[in-house]
Amino acid sequence: MAAGRLSILALSAVLLAGCSEPAAQETADDFANRIGASGATVAVVQGDASASGAAGAQVPQGTDATQLQLVGNIDGVDLGTRTGGCTFQEVGREVLVTAGNAENGKGAIRVGGALVTLDAAGGIGAIRSGTTFSAQGVSISVAPTAGNQAKREANMVVTDAAGVTQSYSGDWICG
Predict the structure, then answer these.
(1) pTM of the complete model
(2) Could you tell me the residue ranges of all domains in the chain?
(3) How far is it, in rounded angstroms, from Cα 45 to Cα 150?
């Protein structure tokens, strides 16, 4: 009788283990598709600045530029012509989204509830290696660890117009 119960318990454990699947890891291609950089260069589309969610080129007055928020929906952001991009994630929270082509790079952050577009020094190569993004009232320097992996640990320093800084540690994920 005890052997029968043990057999039922063992069979139940095997059946339960077979029903659960591990969560799928996001590939670089999945990430690129999610941020709109599926490997093909896309045309520059001028956004309507009056549209809900449209990004501005400067930090809103009275906003603490060093306190980045979850970027969220970036439909109103014009990241320009792009062949790839990267995202900075702090504890799974996307706080900087970037894209670029061979010559230019752009980024987007959310501060004080508003989206702000940033310009980057260099193109996609510089973005993947780590570069500085800036807009009126804020500068952001990203320094990923060495390597060519799609996901690398990184540090990011945000500096406001007064020189006040805030450091973030997280992952630099490029596609």
Answers:
(1) 0.68
(2) 26-174
(3) 27
